[in-house]
Design a protein that fits this description.
alpha+beta; Ribosomal Protein S5, domain 2; Alpha-Beta Plaits; 2 domains; 5-stranded antiparallel beta sheet; 4-stranded antiparallel beta sheet; Impact; EFG_III/V
């Protein structure tokens, strides 16, 4: 199951390795623009840092997910990629991480840098409450006007979210549910088998 951050969580975590300070910023990022904004914010907040390395994963759908990372002057593959692997290792999506490094005078070597950057991100993740990203189906259900109110009330009482109710020739209820088969069964109970929900699309929450 994928996880993400609450948009209200804005951790800034500092770790130290051989006198080098690593300032990690971890944020919810629902777009590439969100991720780039975090990178720019880190540069403004840490102007004396020598490197602002980043990694982000944007998109709930695996086939269209965007994954990018950057070393910002560190030896290739020693910063951004280990950070990205740390995010992927915790099944995170819609997330961006930036680690700003203040050099402490001691070279860490390629392996040491990779461990320091991935470790900095891992520490930040461990200090953040993660939320599961759940796929919800959006379904449409038609009902006669005379029973639409009762159907809506019954669905709400069973925990289903009514997104919209439209009245035309018949009432149309747009409903979000986590399990469409369970929802269809509930509709059958409520309507004595007359209701036939139709799947429209899915959303992630």
């Amino acid at each position: 199951m994928p996880y993400s951050l609450d948009p209200a969580d804005r951790p800034v975590v500092e770790t130290e390795v051989k006198r080098s300070r690593f300032i990690t910023r971890l944020r919810r990022a629902d777009s590439v623009d969100d991720a780039n904004a975090l990178i720019a914010r880190a540069r403004r907040a840490e102007p004396d840092a020598g490197h602002h390395c980043f990694a982000y994963i944007v998109g709930d759908e695996p086939e269209s997910r965007i994954e990018r990372s950057g070393d910002d002057g560190e030896p290739g593959g020693t910063a951004g990629l280990p950070m990205l692997q740390a995010l992927k290792g915790r099944d995170l999506v819609n997330v961006a991480a930036v680690v700003s490094r203040h050099f402490g005078g001691v070279k860490l070597g390629a392996g040491g840098l990779a461990r320091a950057y991935s470790g900095a991100v891992t520490v930040a993740i461990d200090q953040t409450a993660l939320r599961p990203r759940v796929r919800w189906e959006v379904c449409r259900l038609e009902a006669d006007h005379a029973e639409a109110g009762r159907v809506e009330s019954e669905l709400r009482s069973r925990g289903y979210e009514i997104l919209e109710v439209a009245y035309g020739r018949r009432a149309e209820l747009t409903v979000a549910c986590a399990d469409p088969d369970e929802f269809a069964s509930a509709v059958g109970d409520i309507t004595a088998g007359r209701g036939r929900p139709e799947r429209l699309r899915h959303i992630w929450r």
